Amino acid sequence: MDKQAVAFFWFRRDLRLEDNVGLFQALQSPYPVIPLFIFDDTILDSLPKNDARVGFIHESLSKINNQLKELGSSLLIKKGITAAVWQSLIQEYDIKEVFLNKDYEPYAIKRDLAICDLLQANNTVTNCYKDQVIFEEKEITKTDGLPYTVYTPYKNKWLEKYRINAPITEFDCSVYFSNFYKSNFDFPTLEQIGFTASPIKVKPHNLTQISSYQQTRDFPALDTTSYLSPHLRFGTVSIRKLVNWAARKNDVFLSELIWREFFMQILYSFPKVIDHNFKSAYDGIQWRNNEADFKRWCTGTTGYPMVDAGMRQLNETGYMHNRVRMVVASFLCKHLLIQWQWGEAYFAEKLLDYDLSANVGNWQWAAGTGCDAAPYFRVFNPEIQLKKFDEKGIYIRKWIPEFDLGYGQPMVDHAMARDRAIATYKAGILK
Fold it and tell me: What is the pLDDT of residue 211?
């Protein structure tokens, strides 16, 4: 029996049916479209079995599947090594076209090239689209065509280019929903994928406080952040809708969205930053890398309330307020002289919104080793940060219940640590 000719749309970092560029294009294919998600063993095998992010992906896919069921369709879920999954799909279906949105991380680029080659060898056309950013790869460059490595001129160029085209076109996929392949694929449970539910959950995003964003964003006790970052990471919201909205509502919030794209293009242009200093002059720094000190930082028992509250919040919820992230990162790299890669790896394991480009970018910023980074002699004083941004101690008491019972001594004296950090950096920076 002849196999039915079909097209596939491959979901990855774009878990929504709304305003999805690749899906919009796929649904205009002359072939019925099978929506696909692959749980990639190469990624999953390194994760704990109760990883909250896998739970969130599963939950988001379940919502998509329920929407598809109303259309007489369903989501095809596969698990395995991605190339092997595609090999089996090629055997099972007459795949004429595959549609996907681009991913800019080094692993994803390598994986996608391999899959495109495999599909091409089987006479399947692959169509790739820009979806998770407004401007990608080399769309924002200096006049000489080289990438920006300083944020402010990048931002200015980004805004200039955005305003020419504003608002950015949004894509109404619902017009073509009738072109989904009619199916009733089994939707696996989390357990069938090999994972268990986590007590840590991704919160719904909340944009109700954005009008006062610049006044409130540095105060962790106020809890006025948008909780958007995991949704942006996995694409449950559209960056186009969000940017168009932010451009009308709040420039400071828009600026944060541009930072996200800045770090993405840094990673794309300089993939070495994943595990190497952007500024190679910093390669000579003699880090202490004391494992006992690192453990105290991880567990939130440094004796510095702002640092400890932040780490405990992270461990318990998968979130950490952005101001607090700067304080804990500075403390690890400067006070403890532990290299940023250790902190980056710990955040990668714990953060619900873990995004490689932003995590690496921000850690290198804190360590002074990145592009447009904080200067090496800038050492956050955790006590001053506490007085400035949590004066009444509301945030720290939430995460350190024993605070009023007599909190422990700081594990290291600030003045000594600051002097030591500056001297170590000065001696280690290669001339």
Answer: 75
| In the block, residue with structure tokens 């400067």 | 334
Write out the two tokens for 330. Answer: 């500075």
The answer, as to whether pTM is greater than 0.85, is: yes
235, 132 Cβ separation under 8 angstroms: yes
* Cα angle 268, 429, 270; round to 5: 5
Q: How far apart are CA 46 and CA 348, in angstroms?
A: 11
CA distances from 355 to 189, 274, 362 (A): 25, 11, 11
Question: Which residues are designated catalytic?
Answer: 256, 259, 287, 322, 340, 363
> Which residue's entry shows tokens 């950490």?
320
Number of helices (H) and strands (E) in the chain: give both, helices first. 18, 5
Report the chain's mean pLDDT, rounded to a whole number: 95
**What pLDDT score was predicted for residue 1?**
54
| Helix (H/G/I), strand (E/B), else coil: 190 | coil
CA gyration radius for the chain? 23
- Cα-to-chain-centroid distance, residue 224: 20
CA–CA gap between residue 175 and residue 28 (Å, rounded): 10
Domains of the chain: 5-130 (3.40.50.620), 280-428 (1.10.579.10)
- Residue 186 and residue 357 in contact, taking contact as beta carbons nearer than 8 Å: no
